[in-house]
Amino acid sequence: MTLALELTSVSKYFGQFRSLNSVSLSVEEGEFFALLGPNGAGKTTLINIIAGLSRASEGTARVMGYDVVSDFRQARRNIGIVPQELVFDPFFSVRETLKFQSGYFGIKNNDDWIDELLHSLSLSDKADNNMRTLSGGMKRRVMVAQALVHKPPVIVLDEPTAGVDVELRQTLWKFIAGLNKKGHTILLTTHYLEEAETLCNRIAMLKRGHVVTVDTTPNLLKKHASQTLSLQVNGVLPESLTRLVTKSDVVQGRYTLKLVSPSDIESILRRCREDGLDIQDCSIEKPDLEEVFVEIMAGDTQ
Ligand SMILES: Nc1ncnc2c1ncn2[C@@H]1O[C@H](COP(=O)(O)OP(=O)(O)OP(=O)(O)O)[C@@H](O)[C@H]1O
Predict the structure, then answer these.
(1) Is the CB of 83 inside a 6 Å radius of any atom of ligand 1?
(2) pLDDT tens digits, 186-229
(3) Could you give the number of structural domains in the chain?
(4) Which amino acid residue places its CA nearest to atom 18 of ligand 1?
């Protein structure tokens, strides 16, 4: 089976500074894959190498089996990139922008697909407006349409929802998830971890140019995060429970306790009752990706 993306020992130097350190990653066809990491981890550098916009100092990158350097044209044809920054010609209309991009790939008579893209991204009524007259969120949607004019099997989105309102985020994700269902491979970078958790089947985390973890989303949650118990009581928790407390508001009597296993709930509640505390509220919280991310990023870097 052809891999949608294959990076082998990719390093990138900017002078003495090493932005990527021997990164190897494979993304299979049809995956919805997240690349996460704090600011400056190297995500955009990696995407630029995949897109053929920047050259790896060492190692190789392939898109649908095509090397991004020696087979640039084929690799480029197979990928659609939604860049982090909004880059456009302010004097073109939305439709002209999309027609121009189609021409770049040698596609004529692309109107039906352009109309479909405009409709799916709620841009039909802006088709003849100049790019400079659009709001930031609308421009972002045009960037998405622009990346898809040539129906690429692999779609890469670099923080597509940064600074975008909730409604547009939902529209965008519905559209991208639909493309993924149709078989397109998606690579996404985002700082909204709940988006990655909901959408992506697999996640890689980068830290200072190293891949520190790659796993399926359920495995990451299982291995690194624990369930928690939120309690509200009419007093201070017994001393013996403080080692489990991850968050507390002593004035309100609200506490969050880490659960190593679900059976801990029983003993926690018993200890509270033994201390004469009245339990006013109690709920179990599921682990989330934010907790996993914080734990992994706090670990040692190679
Ligand atoms: N052209 C460049 N010249 C010098 N250093 C660069 C260049 N491009 C990126 N870097 C450095 O490489 C590192 C990785 O940057 P990159 O933009 O890939 O991070 P990122 O993970 O995408 O961050 P963010 O989440 O902020 O977008 C940073 O320390 C950055 O300063």
Answers:
(1) no
(2) 999 998 999 999 999 999 999 999 999 999 999 998 887 778 89
(3) 2
(4) 42
